[in-house]
Design a protein that fits this description.
The protein is mostly helical and 135 residues long. The chain has six helices and no strands. The protein has one domain. The longest helix is centred in the N-terminal third of the chain and has 26 residues.
Length: 135
Amino acid sequence: MPDAASSIAPPRPLFLPTARQTTWLVAIGFLAVGEAFYLRFMAIENANMALACRGGLSTWLCSTFRVTIPLFQYEVFGAVALAVALINLMRPSIVLVGLALAAAGFGLVLHNVDLAALAVGAVILSLARPAPGPE
């Protein structure tokens, strides 16, 4: 008769990115936060540039400004970050972590802090989940 201890499967390893994946995640995070800071301080909070963009200036910065403002007003960055982080919490994936970090970086810098901070917490919590098993 087999004993109960031998019938228990060993625990799956935790979802931990490799060193290469961590490097890419850090790069994605820094690039997202850097771009968000650039947009915020060079276009959104810079009165001269904001007025020029609203007046019809057609540069890539003004195009990005026009796209960013509605997304910022409706808290899309924070909502996307939270949605992706919650999906990642259910089924961990390195791609979802990268997307959640990028959206959360934009959300934290562009005043969608409440949802973006919740998303960062969910991403951190997902690192305590078991790695997905083979299907």
